[in-house]
Amino acid sequence: MAGIPLLTLIRREMASLVGSMTIVGGYNYDWGAINNRNYAIGNFPRAEFYCSEENVDEKEGTSSQDYTNQADFEIRVAGKLTTSSTNPLFDINDVFDMATDDLKKVFGINNNVNDTCNVILYKGFKRTESSGSGDQFIPAKMTVRFKVFYSQDRITPTQYASS
Prior knowledge:
By secondary structure, the chain is of the alpha+beta class. 22% of the residues lie in helices and 29% in strands.
């Protein structure tokens, strides 16, 4: 029986870590609505995980018994203000700054995503211009990017191979 793909484990661990962030735990927000676009239920901010992957092996590289991969993760964050604002389009930026700090913190503490990867690196964020205003009713969105490097055994790709 085949094991669970490493990329699946990494994505699940990342989502679990984000979903476990709470104010009581030292974060700016209580996260929890992960990979759920039903904005009528759950709290904000919320996160959706998307990724692409490429192999970064070199022909004469040192890792001949494993694949060294780079997964580019986009965490699409939806946020909204909790109080009324006369300028929600720009006031939402404060929410996004704190949400980005939360993500940086959780992956700074867990930089190998609970031993599922070699390392995770913060790459940046960008607000989605076509999103809502971020007022109390229409969430605004941003994308936070991380690069995840991981190695997998060439014979048994579901097995983690620390390079």
